[in-house]
Amino acid sequence: MKKIYTLLFILVFFPVMMLAQTLRGTIRDAKTNEPLVGASVTYNLKGKQGTISDFNGAYEIKLPEGGVDLIFSYVGYEDQLVPIVIGPAEVMTKNIYMKESTNLMEDVVVTAGRFEQKLSDVTVSMDLIRENDIRRQAPTDLTSTLQTLPGVDIVDKQPSIRGGGGWTYSVGSRSQILIDGMTALSPKTGDINWNTIPLENVEQVEIIKGASSVLYGSSALNGVINVRTARPGLVPQTHVSAYVGFYGDPSNDSYQWSDKSFWKSGKYTVEPLLRSTLFSGAHNPIYEGFDISHSRRIGNFDVSGGLNLFTDEGYREQGYNKRFRIGGNLTYHQPDMGTKLMNYGFNVNFLSNEYGDFFIWRSPKEAYRPSPFTNMGREGNSFHIDPFFNYINPDNGTSHRIKGRFYYTDDKITNPAEGSSFGDIINHMGTDLGAIMGTVNQIKNGDYSMLYPIITPALTGDLNGAVNGAVGILNQFFPAATTSDYCDLINWVMNNGLPPSTNDLGAWMNGDFKKQLPDQSDQNYDFFVDYQFNKRWEGGAQITTGLTYEHMLNESHVTGTHKSDNVAAFFQYDQRFWDRLSVSAGVRAEYYRVDRHYREGATKVLGTTIPFRPVFRAGLNYQLADYSFLRASFGQGYRYPSITEKYARKDIGGVGVYPNEELLPEKGFNAELGFKQGYKWGNLKGMFDIAGFYTQYNNMVEFQFGLFNNASGKPINSLIDAGMTLIQMINGVEGAGLGIGAQFHNVSKARIYGMEISTNGVYDFNKNTKLFYNIGYVYTEPRDADYKERNALEAGYTDPLQMKEKSNEGKYLKYRQKHSFKATLDFQWKRINVGTNLSWKSKMLAVDYLMVDDREKRAPELMDYVRDVLFGNIDGETLNSYWRKHNTDYFTMDMRLGVKVTKEVGFQFMVNNLLNKEYSYRPMAVAAPRTFVAKVDVTF
Q1: How distant, in Å, are the alpha carbons of 136, 377, 772, 775 from that of 837?
Q2: What is the β-pairing status of strands 158-161 and 321-333?
């Protein structure tokens, strides 16, 4: 019996004795003392053994008796090899303090695969913007910092990555914008309102250059910009910023549109707090902003919040912006989960925004003033709440993530300025009422000789003679008038209609029949949910898969009610071989419908039509040497037209966007081959990257400017169309009128290829002196693949009002440039930082035909005269002549100086556009003059 007890004792306690050695402790950041959640603790004994740290950074691992080499690792930190000698049944405590990696190749990103990985391991081109990069720039929104990156441009608030975006003026972005993995694009318009980005709480911005629709769906056709917000640390932290900017005098004095008396009148739409106090004597526009953010941990809760106030008078008249934004995050970390991690909570954000803009100027001599046709602003509110749930089980390498959103917005059109009265207009034109009445009486008596200068050349087909005759007659009536004055008069008639009778003429001239903007808002509701599952195996393989559903409802008093549904499933497989080769492949299937168009996303596969759209991607990254990486990738992308593009009638900057129900989704693919090399020569260390890329779009969506019938929304493509529109106006048809605007349509095929070269890093002069740099050059060849067929078609146009596609007959797409060079340099000495942004770009290759026509002509055409009236002809200076003169390569330079007075307080002083360069990033969009900025930051 004793032998049996002895045997049982050995069987029960011997394994325990063998494994009873325990090592425990905490893993923290060496600098901040923050616990590192999910850090790995491993050793090799018949395979890899290990555990991870919990929410408090605590770990506990069983070790074999004797000696073992433990490896402590955490993404973005330097690995620590710790030899451990432990006796039988011993319980040992070992706290580990890990240092952040100073190797740029070790930066951690999540956007490329929806999981954390090193920047050097991703299979696509990717850039990073860190919190300090943003703060050094002191931007009013994120666009100012994004534009410092090679290959990233912002044209009228619209992002374009490596020439893929072009210009669509705040409708239909080809780049997906995310905040913590959730889209920031408007569900209604598919555009980004940069005011929604919480700059006061940004930790890192990750930019993918290339199609990413497999993981992020529609709008990720051109790339992804993911804003990752900061999370609280152990020590509560409050950050306060206040800044003020002054727009200097433009290099062309005629652009000046304000003075002291203008601001003292108090009639402008927005007024910064400092305008009536400290800067009441300033004659130029100003802007001001105030940010405050606070974060802390309260028990198992993470709490963070931020508030932003911003008012910008705008360097262009009526180009104002006023916002109030407040938002925050609440996260609860479930305790007592062992090695498992679980948290849940929500993000919430509210934005109240009032802004104005225009993209037709008054004239080439008044480039900072809006045309009367574009005297329009918008105001609105938006709110969203994003609940989330995360569960991570490192024991079996799985994670589950669920996130949702309820989004609501309402906005409406406003009139930022009343405009000139009828009396002011005719007085400014020097109107000769005697000449007008004399002509009217001649016509009443059957004498049409006054009209012969128009009729005679018109009958012989002499367009120039007819126009000159009309100008001669008008000069008799309005001897002091300019083309801008005629626009004022035309716009006044469009807003007031024609007088019902001669008895109502006085009331009509007094503006009693003015059409009022409807005092109603458009509402938009959006419901979104996303589930993601991740499984990781010890051999280096992992899968990421999930489902997404979105429902959108748009209610508009102008366009009625529209709704859409989007359902998608995605799957991606990633594998790491031999600790050198990373391979990634994924697929997505997406179903989309709008209203009763149930097969909006229908696709033909091998001759069979399926009701959803499949897309694929694949990529690899091979580590050639310690700091040498070769990558290749291929990805498909697509973008469904937004509600606004396809069905809605919207006013943007006072100009209409007209619906096109025949608009098709655009699709394409991107291929890339790249090489990344880390380097260290003495005190210089950094990273060099070169990539060749090729992008192809089918059914590419571009918008075409032109003239439209406001009643029908149809384009005016002939003299007959124009005549019918005028008849409708005379007959008082509701909504009738001549409109200027754009309509989206599909361009058959586009090809964009090129090369990007960049380097970034730091040179350490000594422990107190450093030089940080980021330098890049991008060459793009943006080809319109169908330009020959289009030119042949347009060559057959006979009606002078038929609209062509672009300003020339060349092979290039609109609103693109071939060459771009950018450099950001920051010299840091102790508490002082001196920095500069440098940028050089080549000329724009093509623009819209309505704006500019570069074709050689024997004589002016009818559209040339239309352009002169719409865009101004002052002393022979027209938009066409201005564009020929100013559409050249240009260089700009910004300078900044930062001083850290104490650990908590810092000051920054900046001069943007230091050389006061006059340049245009598209016709009638003259950039801001030299601008002076002062900012103070306080952290406690």
Answers
A1: 11, 32, 12, 10
A2: unpaired
pTM, two decimals, is 0.85
Contact 168, 702 (CB under 8 A): yes
Spell out the residues 6+ positions from residue 134 whose beta carbon is closer than 8 angstroms to its own. Answer: 142, 145, 199, 202, 205
Report CA 410 to chain centroid distance, whole Å.
21
Residue 672 phi, psi (nearest 5): -150, 145
**Is the predicted pLDDT of residue 282 greater than 80, yes or no?**
yes
In sequence order, what are the beta bridge partners of 69?
A: 83
Please give the DSSP secondary-structure letter assigned to residue 170.
S
Instruction: Let me know: does 879 contact 871? Beta carbons within 8 Å.
Output: yes
Neighbours of 537 (CB within 10 A): 11
At 530, the pLDDT band (50, 70, 90 cuts) reads: very high
690/692 Cα distance (integer angstroms)? 7
Please determine, for residue 683, whether its predicted confidence score (pLDDT) is greater than 70: yes
Residue 812, helix vs strand vs coil:
strand
Helix (H/G/I), strand (E/B), else coil: 451: helix
User: In terms of Cα–Cα distance, which of 663, 671, 665 is closest to 696?
Assistant: 671
Task: Answer yes or no: is pLDDT of 742 > 80.
Answer: no
Contact, 705 vs 849, CB < 8 A? yes
DSSP annotation of 140: S
**Distance (Å, rounded) from C-alpha 383 to C-alpha 170?**
20
Which residues have a Cβ under 8 Å from the Cβ of 306 and sit 6 or more positions away? Answer: 198, 200, 201, 291, 292, 293, 294, 325, 326, 327, 328
pLDDT (mean) for 797-811: 87
Q: How far apart are CA 587 and CA 603, in angstroms?
A: 15
Q: What is the mean pLDDT of the chain?
A: 85
Read off φ and ψ for residue 437, nearest 5 degrees: -65, -35
